[in-house]
UniProtKB/TrEMBL annotation:
<dbReference type="Pfam" id="PF02525">
    <property type="entry name" value="Flavodoxin_2"/>
</dbReference>
<comment type="subunit">
    <text>Homodimer.</text>
</comment>
<keyword id="KW-0288">FMN</keyword>
<keyword id="KW-0285">Flavoprotein</keyword>
<dbReference type="InterPro" id="IPR029039">
    <property type="entry name" value="Flavoprotein-like_sf"/>
</dbReference>
<keyword id="KW-0560">Oxidoreductase</keyword>
<keyword id="KW-0520">NAD</keyword>
<feature type="domain" description="Flavodoxin-like fold">
    <location>
        <begin position="3"/>
        <end position="194"/>
    </location>
</feature>
<dbReference type="InterPro" id="IPR050104">
    <property type="entry name" value="FMN-dep_NADH:Q_OxRdtase_AzoR1"/>
</dbReference>
<dbReference type="InterPro" id="IPR023048">
    <property type="entry name" value="NADH:quinone_OxRdtase_FMN_depd"/>
</dbReference>
<dbReference type="GO" id="GO:0009055">
    <property type="term" value="F:electron transfer activity"/>
</dbReference>
<comment type="function">
    <text>Quinone reductase that provides resistance to thiol-specific stress caused by electrophilic quinones.</text>
</comment>
<dbReference type="GO" id="GO:0016655">
    <property type="term" value="F:oxidoreductase activity, acting on NAD(P)H, quinone or similar compound as acceptor"/>
</dbReference>
<dbReference type="GO" id="GO:0010181">
    <property type="term" value="F:FMN binding"/>
</dbReference>
<comment type="function">
    <text>Also exhibits azoreductase activity. Catalyzes the reductive cleavage of the azo bond in aromatic azo compounds to the corresponding amines.</text>
</comment>
<protein>
    <recommendedName>
        <fullName>FMN dependent NADH:quinone oxidoreductase</fullName>
        <ecNumber>1.6.5.-</ecNumber>
        <ecNumber>1.7.1.17</ecNumber>
    </recommendedName>
</protein>
<feature type="binding site">
    <location>
        <position position="10"/>
    </location>
    <ligand>
        <name>FMN</name>
    </ligand>
</feature>
Amino acid sequence: MNNVLLINASPFGQDSHANQLALELVTSLRYRHPKLELVERDLGADPLPPLGMDYAQALTTVTPFDSPVFECSEVLIGELERCDILLIATPMHNFTLPAALKLWIDYVLRIHRTFSTHSEGKTGLLKDRAVYVLVGSGGFHQGERASQPDFLTPYLSQALNTLGLLNLKFTYLQGLVFGEEAVQATVKDARTQLSLDPLFDNLVDA
């Protein structure tokens, strides 16, 4: 294992609870892989440019992959192709994923480049790898206390599956607006869940 890509979609940046837990996972991995390279893509601190008409037109015409219109897309896809593990730390906004993460998906989910189409649907062109998605939310959308729908998990699963990424594991940090005690409890539960994975069996409770 040589490379981990961390996508942080939180507007809180490095202070995001999901992002902090993701960095703990990287530390855990480095116990066994001390030379592990971490590539961080902070979508809040370094926002991606919005998609324009030129990009939309290039998708529907014969446009070389090295065309300037695909420059940003190629950089992001390259980061994804090189990683051995993909970590995504994201909040849930209005029942689904934040706009920053949706834009990243729009850049990497590209016809003829990361997926192909045929009569039976779409086929991902990327090599499968482990993907860990850490989802932070103020309220509850899983379990007995769930009071709202979750459109993030099925949408993100479908988008990543379309790329060819099938090995997905979601971990939820819920109830983050209910005070420090609630935050500590949900982070502890998430650590416990993740420590059951052989990759993170040395993850310790802080």
